Amino acid sequence: MALTAIGLASLGQAAADEFDDALAALRAVGGEGQGNAAAGQALQRLAKGGADTLPRLLASMDGANPFAANYLRGAVEVIVGNTLAKGGLLPVVELGEFLLNKSHDTRSRALAFELIRRVDAEAAGQLVPGLLGDSSVDLRREAVARLLSQAEARAKASNKPAAVLLYRQALDAARDLDQIQAVAVALRDLGREVNLTRHFGFLVDWQLAGPFHNKDRAGFAVAFAPENNAALSASYDGLNGKVTWQPYSTPDEYGMVDFNEPYGDLKEVTGYAQTEFVSATDRPAQLRLGCKNAWKIWLNGELVFGRDEYHRGMRIDQYQLPVQLKKGGNTILVKACQNEQVEDWTVQWQFQLRVCDATGTAIHSATKKNPEVAAK
Amino acid sequence: MKKLLLTLTFAALANGAVAGDWPGFRGPMGNGISDEVGLPVALDAKKHIAWRVDLPGRGLSSPLVVGDCVFVTASGGARQDRLQILCLNSADGSVIWQRRFWAMGSTMCHKKTSIAAPTPVTDGERLFALFSSNDLFCLDLNGNLQWLRGLTVDYPNARNSLGMASSLVLADGVLVVQVENDSESFTAGLIKENGVNLWKLNRPKSANWTTATVHLAESGREWVLLQSGKGIHAVNPKSGEVAWHYDDGASTIPSSALAGGVLYVPSHGVTALELAADGGSFRQKWRSSRLRPGTASPLVHRERVYSLNNAGVLTCGDTDSGKRLWQLRLDGPFGGSPVVADNHLYAFNEEGRAQVVDLSAPEGRIAGEMDLGEMIQCSPAVSNGALYVRSDRRIWKIAHKTQL
Predict the structure, then answer these.
(1) Residues contacting residue A243 through CB under 8 Å, at least 6 positions apart
(2) What is the mean pLDDT of residues A321-337?
(3) Does the beta-carbon distance from A40 to B147 stay under 8 Å?
(4) Average pLDDT over chain A, rounded to whole?
(5) The complex's ipTM?
(6) Quick one: closest CA in A to B163, which residue?
(7) What CATH code is assigned to A200-356?
(8) Distance in Å, alpha carbon of A208 to nearest chain B alpha carbon
(9) Is B147 on the interface with A (CB under 8 A)?
(10) Domains of chain B (ranges, CATH numbers)
């Protein structure tokens, strides 16, 4: 294969193997600094390459772990800096073609866009309309921002139909909270309904069991009975007597499941929530949780993750937990522990959870109805 | 002569950085004291803002200065997951190089702080930059990445939803990284050449934003003094072994100040711990609840200890007794720690108002003020006749323009 075809024109044939070896060293880096020494040396070799090596470096990010991707980015940054400092050019066309090839990693495609925009804002702008449904949330964001701008202009011109339809397209594509909320406000100002619960895919129908104790924050580590037997017909010895699963549906737009509603504003307690999520297929997914209490999550009886932090803040998608859904019913069990603090900002004993893909696109349970956003 | 002695001491302690450099959080000694003289006092924006440069992202880490280079970190992007490290020319603020990396850990934090909260550190050859996401990058001073770590990837529960802020320190050639939080809480000593763990010490499970103090004992041995809600642990930087523990609690926000072999700890106000000549033990010298600092860390200069409380009151105490000597109300609040140079204290409040206090006045005197108009939460850097201070959006060089 000609060297130019693989983006190595700045290197001699003899250097190609060294280039490949360096890439391999970077991609071999692992946790706790494993491979750092070799990677640092490899990066120095790669950074001597010309701008024509950029597409190859970007392609090497495909499937790379986060450490390796950042090392490769380090090489890209140096090459770009050196090239521009010398008055050189970046291969905008090749970078654009790389970006348009959706088989590549979302990180490297977004980086390609950043590089193009750095040197050719017009070319970058021409790419934006095609990024609306992109698997990269960064690229998608650019296209949503463009639609928002267009919609705002239509709204200011009192062209309500055009504005609403543009906002609808923007909402459908938006995955970032700030953009979603901006669209929701605009559509509601225009008299349209927006179902944010549906857009995000928050799980709203649950069964709750509790309270159990969390004296001295010990409950987090205690495997209370629901962790061993979560059958909805089961009853348990709770903090104040027998406990059974009780249905709970949250009316909150952002899917907040509030243990204080059924149990009162308790302290030093533990509660459980479970729901069944029906997946149409076996598939990878993410459980995305927001919670300011200590928590654990199980999927089909397997512990996914847990964290014993209290009242340090909460936000949508605070924790993004990769899981594998099985076709059919999947049981999600959440444990939420409330601690002893008494300040106003420690009252909350709650969580919000949604199921989505890696881009944040909601995956809805197959048992749910599928009402599209209703227009007035 | 005093300046010369100070300079020699600084040169010996700066892990390779030379006199005049500002190599880490609160300077070469880690206590906010500079040996610079001739900084502007009666501040005037027209006369003393040498340059002002926009930054590509948010941040409240302190700038560093090595020779003619000013290093600063920032975070950008819609999710604050673009971690940036910049090298600026101290003469005019122009960008010499800029590097961007992806955050690997959590970029959630309180809105008042940012992902670029911890201050980097340098040994004069390498720059070590840590972010609130617990991502750590080592670059040479030309911006070439040497190695990196993603500490939340390695230790998934090592994070703080309010954000992390402890700054890096170098002790005995070891890079000390505090990742202290409510869950997977630890401090690690890393081999600075490759970032691999030399040791990893479990730490109190409690959020902690303080920065360690490095103690160079008279014996020539260095110790890392880790502060937390549990007090102070003196740690051997080569092994991670704890030599002693002051166990009466300490603040988790303002950091201790070390001067003259005495550690001034934000504990029950301020508690002075006299350290043994070999650093292997301590004796409590005094305690004063009347010197209680707020967010800003205390300072010690010329037999006086200074603390700023959350009401903006500057309190001066005697280092021998802890006795309160005078108080001066400044315009607060202060999120960043002040610095002292040439017997003047420079404090920047959260509204961006610089205030210069003449410490030679019997009860302190505000000798200069200047409004930068933006929230300042960093501790300034002082180097080669200039102060460097940054906001979420910009960085300023403050100096006599005639000395440029």
Answers:
(1) A209, A210, A211, A212, A235, A236, A237
(2) 97
(3) yes
(4) 94
(5) 0.93
(6) A312
(7) 2.60.120.380
(8) 26
(9) yes
(10) 2-386 (2.130.10.10)
